[in-house]
Design brief:
mainly alpha
């Protein structure tokens, strides 16, 4: 999955650059984004994605939660062996 994200990023950056260059060649102002604005937007998206992932991911913070997760893992393993 990580390689897919990297490939999409490697595709989007040249597309952004090519669009900006094409607009400039046609006499239009380039896209009105400065490097710092793009960096800020990327960091904001990464922050939101990491927050949502941390919220979604099962984080066992208490000792009873850890014990329950261990018990669940044991049940899953025993269910897989029976099939």
């Amino acid at each position: 999955m990580k390689s897919r994200y990297a490939a999409v990023f490697r595709l989007l950056v040249p597309l952004y650059s090519g669009l900006n260059l094409t607009l400039f060649a046609c006499g239009y102002d380039p896209l009105p984004f400065e490097t710092t604005e793009v960096e800020t937007a990327v960091l904001a998206v990464l922050s939101i994605v990491s927050t949502v992932y941390a919220w979604w991911k099962n984080n066992n913070l208490t000792h009873p939660a850890e014990q329950a997760q261990d018990y669940l893992n044991q049940l899953k393993k025993s269910n897989i062996r029976e099939k």
